[in-house]
Amino acid sequence: MSKELTELSFTVSGRISRPIADVYEAVADPAQLSKYFTTGGATGRLEPGNDVRWSFDDYPDIDAPVEVVEADPPTRIVVRWDAEAAAGPDGKSTTTFEFESIDDGTRTLVKITESSWKATADGAKNAFGNCEGWTGMLAALKVWVEHGINLREGFYR
Question: 71: Cβ–Cβ under 8 A, 6 or more apart, which residues?
Fold first, then answer.
């Protein structure tokens, strides 16, 4: 007997050849995040209570308020933001960034989990789109932190 699917979520992960504190900071610091991910800029450090917004030049329709639910440096950040076809009544999805020190502290495993969308065609479309976005963010984070290169420049437009 299988359980009915009621909610969609996903996890993407990648390994970055830098210590955990450096990788965490590249996500939490709006100045760094704006260099490789939020191409239209990020305001507010990812800490609870801060006024945080993410904008994307390559997606001009997105100017997203981001609610920081939790920040536990250097291991975890949890944010919530508006999501089309979200399963919850507030219309938001939850994104959790987990950072794990590996290889004697020389590398960091980053896991990004986002939930929750309705188990519908619209929910799947939005979840898959965000999965693509977070995978791209991880790749951009890696080349930014390891090499100082903005991978997104010219990638989407």
Answer: 28, 46, 47, 48, 77, 78
Q: What is the DSSP string of 18-55?
A: S-HHHHHHHHH-HHHHHHHT-TTEEES-SSTT--EEEE
Q: Report the alpha-carbon distance of residue 53 to residue 66 in Å, rounded.
A: 6
For the segment 68-106, what is each residue's pLDDT rounded down to a tens digit? 999 999 999 999 999 989 998 899 999 999 999 999 999
pTM assigned to the model? 0.93
Widest pairwise Cα distance in the chain: 51
To which residue do tokens 């933001």 refer?
Answer: 81
Q: Which domains, ranges and CATH numbers included, belong to the chain?
A: 9-27+68-147 (3.30.530.20)
Contact between residue 64 and residue 54 where contact means Cβ atoms under 8 Å apart = yes
Instruction: Give the Cα separation of 57 and 71 in Å (integer).
Output: 26
Paired tokens of 106:
């020389």
95 CB-near residues (< 8 Å, 6+ apart): 78, 79, 80, 81, 112, 113, 114, 134
Those residues whose C-beta lies under 8 Å from the C-beta of residue 32, and which sit 6 or more positions away, are: 25, 26, 144
